């Protein structure tokens, strides 16, 4: 991993940790701010909305800023936001601060992925995207458990102070290690052009694939703990270890997906989507049996993140001439998909279908994704279209 990519990775790790660590300290936060745990849950959904809505708007508003300056500004906003969260006097202030940090989060990942692919040769784009994504997976494997433990020992405010320190480290790393010229375009495209590139079928079909991928992941993952306990029969103390294994699988999957993206992107993507459909069907079949269920969950986690890498690499390749809006829609698409998946899962459970039915929904979503990907590839082949060239570096 090159030093500039490592700096981007640290910031991605910081943003990923602060997004997900709130779940680990939610009861303590609720008690400390004088609200119920369900009410405190809005700190999670509010963050997702901030990413999905605010991220693209901020990316467009700041498109004329030099990319290094923007990335440093977003990292500073993250750092200040964590300190403010640690000092939040009440729930309303905490919610507004979380949403503000989430807006920076959404803009950061869109910009960071564009910068990352601009720092490497064209045949290494997939691995560059994988490095940024690995910040999210590693945050779940290391950052969230560590942040939760700190909160349990010294209180939830200590967790946010540690996040503030991590923000300082990320800001310093990018200030020192990122080159002034990032490979980004010198003259940012106008809004009309930013919108027009979304009409390229490779872009909007990839956004559909993101939604299907999240349905395949979060219909089940949102309710993975009760599924493992009630359907598989695992003891509650074993569930964190299963989630840890899932996170390890996801981290490996990111880099496998990066390698495959740089090799044969669309054939690899279609194959992995089909394998994920099979894996979710296997999860449904083996869910009452602990050992095969755990193995299937690890494979499922690895495939989910392996699939995410080529989808995002494809969007970045096909919007290289006007990437501000499209790149910022990537994290938005993921968070909209997560929200839809969680809501669909809740609706199914409320309708009485039970936890075991959830992977079936994911399997069907993956079959839809296979169909969309195949149609997109055939369409592209018949049109003889090629990805646009990146505009001159700033």
From TrEMBL:
Keywords, comma-separated and alphabetical: Cell membrane, Membrane, Transmembrane, Transmembrane helix
Bilayer-spanning residue ranges: 39-58, 70-89, 95-120, 127-146, 158-178, 203-226, 238-257, 269-287, 293-311, 332-353, 359-379
PROSITE patterns found in the cross-reference section: MFS
Main location per the UniProt record: membrane
CDD domains cross-referenced by the UniProt entry: MFS_NepI_like
Annotated SUPFAM superfamilies: MFS general substrate transporter
One of the record's GO molecular function terms: transmembrane transporter activity
Keyword Cell membrane set for record: yes
PANTHER family, A to Z: INNER MEMBRANE TRANSPORT PROTEIN YDHP, PURINE EFFLUX PUMP PBUE
Full protein name: MFS transporter
Annotated source species: Mesorhizobium erdmanii
């Amino acid at each position: 991993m090159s030093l500039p990519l490592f700096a981007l990775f640290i910031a991605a790790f910081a943003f990923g940790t602060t997004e997900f660590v709130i779940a680990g300290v939610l009861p303590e936060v609720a008690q400390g701010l004088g609200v119920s745990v369900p009410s405190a849950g809005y700190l999670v959904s509010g963050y997702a909305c901030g990413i999905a809505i605010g991220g693209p708007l901020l990316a467009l508003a700041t498109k004329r800023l030099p990319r290094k300056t923007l990335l440093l500004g977003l990292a500073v906003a993250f750092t200040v936001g964590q300190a403010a969260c640690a000092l939040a006097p009440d729930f309303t202030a905490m919610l507004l601060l979380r949403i503000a940090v989430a807006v920076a989060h959404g803009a950061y990942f869109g910009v960071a992925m564009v910068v990352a692919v601009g720092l490497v040769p064209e045949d290494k784009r997939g691995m560059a995207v994988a490095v940024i994504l690995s910040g999210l997976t590693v945050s779940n494997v290391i950052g969230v458990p560590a942040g939760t433990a700190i909160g349990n020992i010294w209180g939830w405010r200590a967790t946010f102070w540690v996040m503030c320190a991590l923000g300082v480290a990320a800001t310093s790393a990018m200030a020192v290690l990122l080159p002034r010229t990032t490979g980004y375009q010198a003259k940012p495209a106008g809004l009309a052009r930013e919108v027009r590139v979304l009409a390229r079928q490779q872009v909007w079909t990839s956004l559909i694939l993101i939604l299907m991928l999240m349905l395949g992941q979060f219909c089940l993952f949102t309710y993975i703990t009760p599924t493992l306990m009630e359907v598989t029969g695992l003891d509650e103390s074993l569930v964190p270890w299963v989630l840890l294994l899932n996170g390890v699988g996801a981290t490996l999957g990111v880099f496998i997906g990066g390698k495959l993206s740089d090799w044969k992107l669309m054939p690899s993507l279609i194959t992995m989507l089909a394998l994920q459909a099979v894996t979710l069907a296997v999860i449904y079949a083996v869910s009452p049996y602990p050992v095969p269920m755990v193995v299937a969950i690890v494979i499922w986690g690895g495939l989910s993140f392996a699939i995410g890498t080529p989808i995002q690499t494809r969007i970045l390749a096909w919007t290289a001439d006007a990437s501000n809006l499209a790149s910022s829609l990537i994290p938005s698409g993921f968070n909209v998909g997560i929200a839809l998946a969680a809501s669909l899962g809740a609706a199914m459970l409320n309708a009485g279908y039970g936890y075991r039915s959830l992977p079936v929904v994911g399997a069907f979503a993956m079959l839809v994704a296979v169909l969309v990907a195949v149609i997109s590839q055939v369409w592209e082949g018949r049109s003889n279209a090629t990805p646009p060239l990146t505009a001159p570096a700033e």
